[in-house]
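User: Let's play a game. I give you a shape written as tokens, and you guess the letters that built it. Ready? Here's round one.
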């Protein structure tokens, strides 16, 4: 009994809690990779089409490389689970991934435009090859965001905080680039005597030579801070219940997917959230909305982006509070539902918008002498609340991956955060890989455009239909899928507290000489833990 009491003692203190600076800094890894999410996934199709003159091939390559990215995920996840170095399990992947991305994005945006137009075949080859190399680096580093959470904290009250700091980190990376790039773009727009854009800045190679080194510096700085954040926790004593390296075979993937029901549903929810975000924030879609439908991209894009972030702040706080009290499932479901309801209003406003009637278009006092109108007020309210709600939940599935990983440890005794994180991202990326190709195909289908539109493209009714489908309808369908998936998701707040308590008991037993199999058999329910405490 003495041994049982000794093994039970850590159960009371069995939660692995992070220090505040660790909770703040490690999620910056997501911000570091989201710099490239903007630079590559938001702009590479525009760059390939307008600068390299590759046409729709550039958009198709975004989808193909996203699929390639998804395929490499399980391979790198399995490699991560087998890795243990002097500097830990996760930090080597963060460092290598950051270096690969920095070199490849510089080569893509700064060197490929130097290839003469007389050697178009080489442009195609280099665009494809460099893009593929970048994907490998991206997978290296992004995999760590999901997998590394498992060593950072398993406290049900702390883990939801990862969402808010992850979003802040994402905004530092993604937001900085989204703010700066349109400003630089305006500097390179070519306008006619009437001030209308005749050549978009996005078609000028000079723009990419400026934004690329800025993005690299921001990403490297955020990566360095993230490495500091995880340094103390990237050690074997924080790996699962036994601190051992799992040698999981690829053949075991199917078994894990089959038996880990929460992960199955989280894959659907995560893919839905990511698809909604990828399409609704796509650069070309926003160019068409603010530049073609509303007539003034340069004056409308930044104000609307800033308004969206302002509305997002209270939802960040609300979502964390809800997650701490009711669990992450309840928080995700609640605020995705808010987004879905609000976008019904956005959809209605876009349907009634009229390109020739200023009263039915967005207008601000500083946008070319315009004045704010009732349409703009309604749009701000519906879009602001809806955007704030879904932006606050867009990354919420990421900390939920850590819950699914802890559930897998509870279910099978295996600590395989790399595989669990990359299983999630595999489906996530396969679905979101459709985003850029859908954008190109829908503009072709509804508007007959064989190249991606810019703010210099004339308005047509077909463009309006394409924008409404991509900005509203597809995200709404994705959120509906998320709500369906979460309906049967079993990892509630109460269930996660039970799982962490049982895992802590097993870890204490193993530390006192039990085998993993013995600990798994000894502690299966909360009643088993309570019996030993008594």
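Assistant: Ready! My guess for every position:
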């Amino acid at each position: 009994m003495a041994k049982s009491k000794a093994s039970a003692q850590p159960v009371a203190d069995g939660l692995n809690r992070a220090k505040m600076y660790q909770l703040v800094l490690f999620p910056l890894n997501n911000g570091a990779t989201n710099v490239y999410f903007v630079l590559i996934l938001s702009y590479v199709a525009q760059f390939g089409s307008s600068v390299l003159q590759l046409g729709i091939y550039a958009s198709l390559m975004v989808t193909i490389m996203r699929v390639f990215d998804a395929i490499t995920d399980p391979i790198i996840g399995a490699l991560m689970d087998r890795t243990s170095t002097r500097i830990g399990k996760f930090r080597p992947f963060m460092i290598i991934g950051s270096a690969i991305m920095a070199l490849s994005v510089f080569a893509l945006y700064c060197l490929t435009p130097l290839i003469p137009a007389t050697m178009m075949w080489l442009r195609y080859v280099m665009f494809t090859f460099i893009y593929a190399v970048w994907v490998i680096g991206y997978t290296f580093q992004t995999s760590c965001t999901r997998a590394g959470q498992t060593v950072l904290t398993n406290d049900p009250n702390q883990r939801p905080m990862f969402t808010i700091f992850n979003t802040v980190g994402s905004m530092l990376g993604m937001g900085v680039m989204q703010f700066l790039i349109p400003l630089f773009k305006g500097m390179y727009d070519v306008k006619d005597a009437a001030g209308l854009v005749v050549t978009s800045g996005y078609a000028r190679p000079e723009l990419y030579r400026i934004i690329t080194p800025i993005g690299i510096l921001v990403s490297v700085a955020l990566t360095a801070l993230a490495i500091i954040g995880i340094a103390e926790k990237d050690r074997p004593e924080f790996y699962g219940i036994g601190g051992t390296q799992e040698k999981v075979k690829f053949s075991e993937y199917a078994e894990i997917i089959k038996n880990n029901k929460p992960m199955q549903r989280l894959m659907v929810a995560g893919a839905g959230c990511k698809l909604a975000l990828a399409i609704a924030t796509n650069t070309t879609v926003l160019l068409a909305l603010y530049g073609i439908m509303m007539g003034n991209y340069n004056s409308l894009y930044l104000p609307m982006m800033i308004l969206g972030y302002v509305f997002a702040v209270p939802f960040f706080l609300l979502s964390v509070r809800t997650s701490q009290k009711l669990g992450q499932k309840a928080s995700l479901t609640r605020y995705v539902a808010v987004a879905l309801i609000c976008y019904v209003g956005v959809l209605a406003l876009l349907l009634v918008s009229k390109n020739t009637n200023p009263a039915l278009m967005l207008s601000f006092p500083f946008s070319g002498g315009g004045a704010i109108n009732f349409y703009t007020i309604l749009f701000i309210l519906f879009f602001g609340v809806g955007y704030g709600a879904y932006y606050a939940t867009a990354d919420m599935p990421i900390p939920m991956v850590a819950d699914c990983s802890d559930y897998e440890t509870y279910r099978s005794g295996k600590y395989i955060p790399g595989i669990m994180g990359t299983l999630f991202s595999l489906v996530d990326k396969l679905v979101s890989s459709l985003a850029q190709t859908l954008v190109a195909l829908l503009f072709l289908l509804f508007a007959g455009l064989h190249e991606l539109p810019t703010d210099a493209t004339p308005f047509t009714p077909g463009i309006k239909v394409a924008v409404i489908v991509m900005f509203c309808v597809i995200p709404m369908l994705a959120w509906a899928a998320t709500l369906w998936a979460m309906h049967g998701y079993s990892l509630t707040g109460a269930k996660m507290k039970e799982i962490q308590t049982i895992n802590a008991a097993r870890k204490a037993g193993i530390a006192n000489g039990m085998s993993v199999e013995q600990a798994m058999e000894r502690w299966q329910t909360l009643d088993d833990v309570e019996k030993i405490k008594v």
